[in-house]
Each structure stands twice: as structure tokens, then as C-alpha cells.
């Protein structure tokens, strides 16, 4: 037991230092009690700013047999205010030693813990003086985590059945504190020198290259890594494993390595090639080389590789640790004979995302998690910019709109949050790793790029990165960097891109007004998109040459007052029947009017859906668009058509458009061939019968299913059961054949059954066309024998993409016993990994034979799930929303509220996803009650027309 600190020292410690955040007066009165029963000398979730770290010297010794680790960290500190206490983070670890290394000598430090805030207080019996530097030394010990955060254990099976254990890190957002004592907030940047002790049969990798390896007594080895640049704690990474690696060098001489388990190293070639091309692209686009220069000089005498590692157990898709990006195996490993075009696209995008972070997030970091979108929105946006250039054959633009639609789904609920939003505790921080921060962030950046022009946007981004390298930023810094680009005092004459851009801008150009500083206040525009939640619905009414515009918040609610007080500055774009030239108009007010040069038959706003808003065409507007789509749909781009399909069905939900109008528009889809528009048609139509499944309305449900099959029958029939065509065509083929098979369309079921039987008869060795495997496996999993065969193949396969498709197919089986077995297997983490449980659970919840099983399983295992995946994480939200968001009855809403209402704050009652679930089910109920009669009437009318035509 530690002694109590002197009373005078405690009084000093409770005085609020000028460098700390201004505390709430009421909160300041509260005295927190440490785990030892003594007063804790700090009472805020955020750390004080009296001291800050300059350098960590970190030694770690993981034991992969006993599954624990020990360590010692020496932290060099800069003192900003006189103090007798150092407050930092540590979570679930034993502090074995605590010393102050001062110029006057070594002195012991008293240690107090306050576990609710994950904080340690180190109390010195001498004052630490402002302006001086000190060192503290802390010894610590902990268990390797059995979750996916902190310093955690992972394992895999070899083909012979042997189990191999490794240890890896995942520190974002607040888990570095579970691996070593540290100042675990992004603004506390420091340098790190890391040493790792290991057995000779293992390797150790970290953010930086190894500078030497030292032999220790007992046959152990200690790897010493080079010192990092200044960076945040959440970007520190290290892995101890038996991985192998492959390497290549970029055009600029940067060596990149990809690490994986030995038996899968042959699946790393595509990721390595992709990383090399993407790194070359980013160095050119950002005009800042990698490795990153510091103050005009190379920090390292050799290239520092941004290595990539495939981790067998990994909760998220990937992590951007500086110099050592980590990935799920499915997000990195690619087999050219077994992986699909969708796999190739997904792997390329995720590598693009993590490498973009080496600049956005790592070099320049948000000051606090409220601006997480500066990291994640940018990285998501850069996925599409970079892949479009480096891998044009993937047609990545075909899939960007889907991200905006996904963001709008969450952003249309009352429980949404601003892109830049207040967060304080770890659960709140974890919760904003969501579609709003990632996808909405990317979509509003895309809107801004389109508005100011791609050239101006790129110059502004380069300015932002150069100005704030190795620093922390807020959103305002980005907007400032995109304003007055060619002002003489800001023009960097040594920057070729900047100089050329501004020279060209001085020449007459129709676009110049969109980025001229005197006409465009970027911050005023973008604050309306980042500081308030939701997005606008723009209503358009054409009267002759006059176009009347109005805006309001689009919100799915039965409380209209929640839409009051919202106003955006909206960069509108539009084309008309008279001109395909894109016109622009900045709508700053609630209503406005613009004038066309002549009267037109139709007008389409939000060209290619480059803007993050929806459009309602009042009066005869929708009828004009329906007529256009029925007679000449290719006049509009595929993205324009997809956005019209999206908007018209979403407007039904808020009573702006009648359901029969949306269904009439959907009829044109029978002639649609483009991926984005077809898939958006499915995205709007399929949920209608999924809601009916939950109400036992078999007759109407089957009529809706038949309508959708009839709508796309021609396109399905034209699909070949091969792997021919472009990436978009192949992705669409896989989608259509799977839909046809699931919906029991006879030609699809017959062909899939034939192929599955032949594949099974060959022992699974027959080569199936990759694009048809989802359909084939799904049909095969309908019988007990077929399901068991798939499960056995899943157990032995080393191809991650093939395993993913088998997993989905098995989860869509009608065999309820098998579905339960899958969930139980995933929870145990033996044959199926625990990391796959959320996907298994949500897929089963989409299965009409499994949705009740999934809900029961979620409830029964709730406490285990929140311990393994951690409160507030995106995977917990994914499970909660995924399992419940198709419920459409008051009985199910009551049942959901009963369960979640029984939780405590410690078990998740305050999570945003629970409120989202209530709102979504409520919206489903209102939709069904309001629109089912219209759906029935429209299908009746269509049936009578079809019969009449047949006669």
C-alpha cells in the first residue's frame, strides 16, 4: 500500500494549472477517489497540460507461452507549469516501479490510480519546475488482451492443424494505454524508441527499421528499432510473430514489405504491387516524399518502409500505424485464381486508405477526436481519388455514390451527429468511427473539390500538409488552407504546382470565380456541413424560365420541429434538357430563385450527385423525369440515374412523394445496365419485402419479390456464368446471379445446383468461375449435405476470399440448426474466427429463416460481445443495427426496447446505436402503416395491365 501524500502537496495538486482545460466549476468541486481509497489529484477525463512528453524509450517483453508481457518505459517530459504531479494513462496493468529521473538524482514516485478514467497520478515530493525537462521510469506488467485492442494475442492454424500464437497491437483510439503507460491523447505527440525481447523462432517488427539485435541470457534476442518521428500514441505499433515477408522498391527508392503467416505469403503479391503504385501516386499528389522530411532534411539515412502486415485476428479492416499498417487477412491477401473483382477492389481501396493516412492523420493529426473526420473522411475520399488513377480498370467511381447513400441513411435520423462533434470519454470516441465521420466526410470533401475545382483543391491540400507537418489541427486550419490560394503573401514560389496553378488562374477562365478569395468563403460554406448534423433536401419548382429553390433538413421523424433552424450553403449543380453544360449556383438562403436562358422540358440538379444533398422536384418535375427515363434514360449519367432512384424512394419516407410515383420511376430499370443504377434499384426495392417478412405477409411479400425479379429478368438472363468482362460488369454479374438464386428464379437455381453438384463431386477441386461462386455456394448450402461439405471446405481452405463467400452462403441457409451452429462456432473462435461473428450474425439476421435466431443470440451473449469488441466500437453498432433494422412491428420495437432498456451505462445503455435502432424501427413501422395500401394498389394495377397486355 502506498503512503498518503502530504496535505500541502494535495492542495497544490488540486489547483487548476493555467495550461489545463478550464474545468467546469461544479465538476471541479468533486474529489475523485483512487483505487487505494486516497483522493485522486485530477478530476477530468482529459489530461492536464502541465507536462507533455518529448520522447518514450519503451522496452517490451511479450511471453507467447504464458500470454502476458512486461515492460519498462522511460518518458522524457517537458514541464509547462510548476507542478508536483504527473497525470497520464494506464489501463488494466500493474505498475511495478515508478521513479523520477531528475538532474538532482533518482527519486521514487508515489502512484495513484483512477480506473474509470484509465489514469495514473505520479506524485513527486519535490516540485517539477516550469521550463525544465525530466524523465520518469515506469515498470509495468499485464496480460496480453483476449479482445482485439491494446497489445493482444492472435493465433492461426497451419495446414497440419498446429496452432501458432502471435502478439500484435491495435491502439486507435484509446488503447495504447493498455500496452504501456503514456499520454494517450492525439495532441501529445512525441518520439518513440522501441525495444522488443523475443525468442529466436519469432520476428519482431515495429514502426521503424531494426538498427540492431542483441543476444540476451537464456537464448532470447532483443531487437532495437530506430527512433520514430514525432507522432501520437495511437500510431505506435509492434508485432511479434513467425511471419514471412516479401519486398519491393518504389520508383523513389522506398522499400515496402508485406508480412503474412508463412502458408499465405504467396497471396501477398497483389498487395505489394498495389502499395508500390499507390505510394508513388501519393508522393506526387501531396508533393511531399515518403519517408517524410523534417525541416528540409532527411531524418533517416535510408528509406523507411511503410510496411503492411496481415493479422489473423483483427477487428476493423485495417489500421494506419505510421510505417507499419496492419490489416485483416481478407483486406490484404489476394489469390488471382480464387479472388473476385470485388475482392481486388476492396483490397486496393483499403491499402489506398491506410497509405493516405501516412500524410492525413499521421503527418498532420487532428487535435482531438472531435475532428476525427479530418483523418478518416480524407482517407476515405483519397481511396477514390488514388485508385481512379492507379487502377483505372477497377472503375472505382462506380462505387463512390454508395458511400454517400450509406452516410445519408444514418444522417437522416434524429440521433445523427455533426461531422465535427463533441466527444469526451472512450466510448463516445469509439462511436464516431462511423459512416458520418468516414463516408459523409468523404462526400462533403468530394463536393468541395468539385466546387472549388480539383486543381485548387489539390493546391490547398498540399498547403495544409506542409503548414501543419508533425502538428495537430482543427477543421478551421483546413478551410484556411483552401482560401486565397494565390494571395502574394501565401504563394510558395518554390512550389511548382502552386506557381503553375496561380499563373493559369490569372488567365481568363469560367471556373475562376469558384475559388477566387473575394467571392468564396470556404470556412463559411463548410462550417454549415461540419458543425451541424444532417443534410439538406432541396426542393425545385420550375415555372417557365424561373426555378424556385428552397431548402430544409431531410429527417425521418414524426416530430417536424426537429427540422427547424437548419441552414446550409449548398453548392448546387444542374443540367437541363436544353444544355448538358453543368451550371452552378450557391444556395445560401432558405429560398432563392434562379433563371434559365430558356424554357426546358426537364432539369436535373446535383449532377452526378457530386453534392451531399437530396432533391425533390415539385409540381410536374418528377413526371418529367420519369418520362425522360422511360424514353431516353442514357441522356443522364449512371450516377444521375442512381441518385434519382435513391432520392425518389427516400422522399416517400418523409411524405414528399407518393409511393406509386417512385414505383413508376423504377419501371425504367428494366432497361438499365449500369452497375450503380442497377444496384441502387435493388437497394431501394429489396428492403420493401424485407419489412414484409417481419409481418408474416407472405402473399404481398411474394408479389413484391416477383415484381423485382420481373424487373431485372432480362438483365439476369443476359448474364453468362463465366468470368468475362470488365470489373464493373463482373461485380454486377455476381450480384444479379446471387439475387436470382436467392429469389428462386428457376434458370439461376438450376444452373447453380448443377455447378454445385459437380464441384462437390470433385471434392471441391473443380475450378468454378469466381463470379458465380456466391450463387453456387448459396444454393448448395440449402441441403444438410451441401452445408456440411461447405463447412469442411471452409475449415481447410487457406484462401481468405473463398472462405468469405462460403461464410455468407452458409449463413443464408434455411437450415436453422446450422445457423445456430455457425454463430456458436464464431463465438468460440475455433473454426470460424471471433472477428467474423458480426458478419455472421448480421447475415443470418437478413435470412428470413434466421432473423429471430440472430436477435436471440445477440441478447443471450451481449455481455461477452461487448467485452470482446468493446463498447462503442463500430462492430458493436453494426451488430445492434444490423440485427434489428428490418423490424417493422410495434411488438418487435417493444421487445428491443425492453432488452436495451434493461442495460446499465457500463453495459452499453448510453450507446448512440441503441437510439438509432429505436428510430429506424419506428420509421419502418410508420412506412408500413402509411404505404402498404398504396403498394398493394399499385401491384394490383400493374397486374391488371400485364394481364390486359397478354390478352
Automatic annotation (TrEMBL):
UniProt cross-references to CDD domains, sorted A to Z: M1_APN-Q_like
Keywords: Adaptive immunity, Aminopeptidase, Disulfide bond, Endoplasmic reticulum, Glycoprotein, Hydrolase, Immunity, Membrane, Metal-binding, Metalloprotease, Protease, Signal, Signal-anchor, Transmembrane, Transmembrane helix, Zinc
Record note on cofactor: Binds 1 zinc ion per subunit.
Residues at the active site: 354 (proton acceptor)
Family per similarity comment: Belongs to the peptidase M1 family.
Assembly and oligomerization: Monomer. May also exist as a heterodimer; with ERAP2. Interacts with RBMX.
Name of the molecule in the record: Aminopeptidase
Annotated organism of origin: Takifugu rubripes (Japanese pufferfish)
Taxon lineage: Eukaryota, Metazoa, Chordata, Craniata, Vertebrata
Amino acid at each position: 500500500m502506498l503512503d498518503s501524500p502530504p496535505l500541502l502537496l494535495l492542495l497544490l495538486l488540486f489547483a487548476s494549472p493555467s495550461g489545463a482545460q478550464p474545468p467546469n466549476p461544479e465538476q471541479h468541486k468533486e474529489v475523485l477517489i483512487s483505487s487505494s481509497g486516497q483522493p485522486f489529484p485530477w478530476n477530468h477525463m482529459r489530461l492536464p497540460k502541465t507536462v507533455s512528453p518529448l520522447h518514450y524509450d519503451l522496452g517490451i517483453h511479450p511471453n507467447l507461452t504464458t500470454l502476458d508481457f512486461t515492460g519498462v518505459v522511460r518518458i522524457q517530459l517537458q514541464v509547462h507549469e510548476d507542478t508536483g504531479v504527473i497525470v497520464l494513462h494506464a489501463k488494466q496493468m500493474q505498475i511495478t516501479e515508478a521513479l523520477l529521473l531528475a538532474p538532482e538524482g533518482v527519486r521514487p514516485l508515489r502512484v495513484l490510480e483512477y480506473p474509470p478514467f484509465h489514469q495514473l497520478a505520479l506524485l513527486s515530493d519535490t516540485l517539477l519546475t516550469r521550463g525544465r525537462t525530466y524523465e520518469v521510469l515506469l515498470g509495468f506488467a499485464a496480460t496480453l488482451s483476449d479482445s482485439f485492442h491494446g497489445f493482444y494475442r492472435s493465433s492461426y492454424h497451419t495446414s497440419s492443424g498446429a496452432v501458432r500464437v502471435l502478439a500484435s497491437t491495435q491502439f486507435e483510439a484509446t488503447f495504447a494505454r493498455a500496452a504501456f503507460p503514456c499520454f494517450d491523447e492525439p495532441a501529445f505527440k512525441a518520439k518513440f524508441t522501441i525495444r522488443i525481447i523475443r525468442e529466436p523462432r519469432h520476428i519482431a517488427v515495429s514502426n521503424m527499421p531494426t538498427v540492431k539485435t542483441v543476444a540476451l541470457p537464456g537464448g532470447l534476442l532483443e531487437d532495437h528499432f530506430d527512433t520514430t518521428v514525432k507522432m501520437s500514441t495511437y500510431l505506435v505499433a509492434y508485432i511479434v510473430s513467425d511471419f514471412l515477408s516479401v519486398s519491393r522498391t518504389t520508383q523513389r527508392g522506398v522499400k515496402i514489405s508485406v508480412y503474412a503467416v508463412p502458408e499465405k505469403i504467396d497471396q501477398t503479391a497483389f498487395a505489394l504491387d498495389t502499395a508500390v503504385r499507390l505510394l508513388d501516386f501519393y508522393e506526387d499528389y501531396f508533393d511531399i516524399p515518403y519517408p517524410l522530411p523534417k525541416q528540409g532534411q532527411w531524418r533517416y539515412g535510408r528509406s523507411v518502409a511503410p510496411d503492411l502486415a496481415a493479422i489473423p485476428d483483427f477487428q476493423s479492416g485495417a489500421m494506419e500505424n505510421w510505417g507499419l499498417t496492419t490489416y485483416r487477412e481478407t483486406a490484404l491477401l489476394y489469390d488471382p485464381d480464387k479472388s473476385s473483382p470485388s475482392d481486388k477492389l476492396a483490397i486496393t481501396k483499403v491499402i489506398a486508405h491506410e497509405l493516405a493516412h501516412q500524410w492525413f492523420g499521421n503527418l498532420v493529426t487532428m487535435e482531438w477526436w472531435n475532428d476525427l473526420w479530418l483523418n478518416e473522411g480524407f482517407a476515405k475520399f483519397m481511396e477514390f481519388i488514388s485508385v481512379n488513377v492507379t487502377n483505372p480498370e477497377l472503375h472505382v467511381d462506380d462505387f463512390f455514390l454508395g458511400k454517400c447513400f450509406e452516410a445519408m441513411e444514418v444522417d437522416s435520423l434524429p440521433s445523427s451527429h455533426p461531422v465535427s462533434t463533441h466527444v469526451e470519454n472512450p466510448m463516445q470516441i469509439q462511436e464516431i468511427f462511423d459512416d458520418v465521420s468516414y463516408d459523409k466526410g468523404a462526400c462533403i470533401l468530394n463536393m468541395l473539390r468539385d466546387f472549388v475545382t480539383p486543381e485548387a483543391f489539390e493546391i490547398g491540400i498540399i498547403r495544409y500538409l506542409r503548414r501543419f507537418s508533425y502538428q495537430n489541427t482543427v477543421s478551421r486550419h483546413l478551410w484556411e488552407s483552401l482560401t486565397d490560394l494565390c494571395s502574394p503573401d501565401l504563394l510558395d514560389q518554390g512550389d511548382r504546382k502552386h506557381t503553375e496553378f496561380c499563373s493559369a488562374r490569372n488567365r481568363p477562365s469560367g471556373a475562376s470565380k469558384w475559388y477566387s478569395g473575394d467571392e468564396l468563403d470556404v470556412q463559411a460554406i463548410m462550417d454549415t456541413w461540419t458543425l451541424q448534423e444532417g443534410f439538406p433536401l432541396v426542393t425545385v419548382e420550375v415555372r417557365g424560365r424561373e426555378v424556385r429553390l428552397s431548402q430544409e433538413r431531410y429527417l425521418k421523424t414524426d416530430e417536424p420541429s426537429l427540422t427547424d433552424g437548419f441552414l446550409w450553403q449548398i453548392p448546387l449543380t444542374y443540367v437541363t434538357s436544353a444544355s448538358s453544360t453543368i451550371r452552378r449556383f450557391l444556395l445560401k438562403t432558405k429560398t432563392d430563385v434562379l433563371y434559365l436562358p430558356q424554357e426546358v422540358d426537364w432539369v436535373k440538379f446535383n449532377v452526378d450527385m457530386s453534392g451531399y444533398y437530396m432533391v425533390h422536384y415539385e409540381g410536374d418535375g418528377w413526371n418529367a423525369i420519369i418520362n425522360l427515363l422511360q424514353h431516353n434514360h442514357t441522356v443522364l449519367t449512371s450516377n444521375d440515374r442512381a441518385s434519382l432512384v435513391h432520392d425518389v424512394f427516400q422522399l416517400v419516407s418523409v411524405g414528399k412523394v407518393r409511393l406509386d410515383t417512385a414505383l413508376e420511376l423504377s419501371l425504367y430499370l428494366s432497361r438499365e445496365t449500369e452497375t450503380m443504377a442497377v444496384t441502387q434499384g435493388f437497394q431501394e426495392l429489396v428492403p420493401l419485402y424485407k419489412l414484409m417478412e417481419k409481418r408474416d405477409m407472405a402473399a404481398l411479400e411474394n408479389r413484391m419479390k416477383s415484381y423485382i425479379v420481373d424487373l431485372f429478368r432480362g438483365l439476369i438472363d443476359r448474364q453468362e456464368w463465366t468470368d468475362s468482362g470488365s470489373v464493373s460488369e463482373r461485380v454486377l454479374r455476381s450480384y444479379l446471379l446471387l439475387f436470382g438464386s436467392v429469389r428462386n428464379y428457376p434458370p439461376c437455381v438450376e444452373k447453380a445446383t448443377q455447378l454445385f453438384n459437380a464441384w462437390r463431386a470433385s471434392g471441391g477441386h473443380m475450378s468454378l468461375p469466381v463470379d458465380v461462386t456466391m450463387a453456387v455456394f448459396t444454393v448448395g448450402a440449402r441441403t444438410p449435405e451441401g452445408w456440411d461439405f461447405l463447412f469442411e471446405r471452409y475449415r481447410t481452405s487457406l484462401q481468405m476470399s473463398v472462405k468469405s463467400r462460403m461464410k455468407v452462403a452458409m449463413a443464408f441457409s434455411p437450415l436453422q440448426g446450422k445457423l445456430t451452429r455457425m454463430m456458436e462456432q464464431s463465438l468460440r473462435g475455433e473454426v470460424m474466427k471471433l472477428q467474423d461473428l458480426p458478419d455472421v450474425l448480421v447475415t443470418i439476421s437478413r435470412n428470413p429463416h434466421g432473423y429471430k435466431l440472430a436477435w436471440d443470440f445477440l441478447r443471450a451473449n451481449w455481455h461477452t460481445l461487448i467485452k470482446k469488441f468493446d463498447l462503442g466500437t463500430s462492430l458493436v453498432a453494426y451488430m445492434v443495427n444490423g440485427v434489428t433494422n428490418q423490424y417493422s412491428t410495434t411488438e418487435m420495437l417493444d421487445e428491443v426496447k425492453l432488452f436495451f432498456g434493461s442495460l446499465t451505462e457500463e453495459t452499453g445503455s448510453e450507446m448512440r446505436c441503441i437510439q438509432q435502432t429505436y428510430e429506424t424501427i419506428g420509421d419502418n413501422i410508420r412506412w408500413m402503416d402509411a404505404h402498404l395500401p398504396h403498394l398493394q394498389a399499385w401491384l394490383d394495377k400493374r397486374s391488371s395491365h400485364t394481364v390486359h397486355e397478354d390478352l
